Amino acid sequence: MAFQQGLSGLKASSKALDVVGNNVANSSTVGFKSSNGHFADVYAASLNGLAGSQVGIGTQLAAVFQQFTQGNITATNNPLDIAINGGGFFNVTRDGTLFYTRNGQFHNDNDGYIINDQNYRLMGYIASPEGVILPSQPEEIRINSGNIEPRPTGSDLAGNVRMVLNLDSSKSEPTTIPFNYQNPLTYTYSTAQTFYDTLGVEHNVTYFFVKQPVPTPPPATPQGEWDVWATLDGANPEPVGTPAGPNRGGLLTFDANGMLQMPRSLALPTTWNITTGAATPLGTDVAGPLPYWEIDFTGTTNFSGESTVNSQYQGGYGQGTLSSVSISDRGIVLGNYSNGQAKVLAQVVLSTFPNMNGLIDMGNNLLQMTSASGEGLVGVPGAGARGVLRATAVEESNVDLTDELVNMITLQRNYQANAQTIKTQDQIMQTLVNMR
Predict the structure, then answer these.
(1) To the nearest 10°, the Cα dihedral for 269, 271, 277, 278?
(2) What beta strand segments (E) does 43-105 contain?
(3) Which of 201, 313, 320, 372 could in theory staple to 339 by disulfide, Cβ–Cβ 3.0 to 4.6 A?
(4) Are 388 and 402 members of one domain?
């Protein structure tokens, strides 16, 4: 029996050394999780065995379990490298077969898909054309390298044109009248804003503000009045809003505290007509007039101090080409374009499992679901037990070489001791053979 016991010890130690050797070999493999061998004793079955009199017949390697502890995160220079800080696995697919991995070394193929070194495609939720994430069945993430479409100023998506200013109440009214945009002596302050038409062509809109004298007789509550004019691409001065009278622009009225009174929004000139290639004027969409063709001055003040623009917004932009891709800690894949715009393209998903050790290793840093692992639970990074992501970084192997070298020494001693058991039994048998 000692031969069998020693032989089982040799086999178990040898297999455990294989586990250690595999850990050491993968100490530099991104996303690798180390394994531990679990031993179990072996007893012969006996129908009439008595408690306290059983002698074991050896040992066996009962199971090999992976240790899904966090590996160190190291920065890289690849914006598509992704590290998981916490639980979960990337979903990747090829030829319709789904796999899971912790290795986040990704890049683009010539079709725009985000792939790993084995051409498995990363999966996630795909954004709508408006850049809205709609969680549904995960799909292969593809980066569209095409241009981002222009957005005309005043469109539904662009919203209202807005401008917040301070108009200097201490300034005197112009002495030269009437207003002439080509004569600075006829207005008090001017500023410009960029507009875009339906083809993304850039246009310059210049606003002119003309301070008006306090009405005679003065109102019960002292107030300031400013006319507003605008030119489109340096010509065609028009009043912004309803003219206050002959040779007058649209009117902004302030109370004694310098606060803007109603109305706070003025209509932009409807006579502006910028013909695009589709014969569509600025301020109209292919489907008809745009509903937001006005400028909102809410927040504008009439305090003593330099006239200045505090903020402005027009919501439109010209077309742009994709210049870079970035990924947030919640897995949002963001396309950055040459026109300064950014658009949500997709969101990376992670899967968790009731029993991670039920997953089966398929090589190439890939794992596959089994009945023992349970169904993968798909969700976005940071939700539930799923970790957050770190882009331009990878998760290193969690192998501790110091521990593995110590384990190797221990298993070597175990192997030698079991070999000594066989040697000792052989010497006993030799003694018995030599008896006369």
Answers:
(1) 100
(2) 58-66, 73-75, 82-85, 89-94, 97-101
(3) 320
(4) no
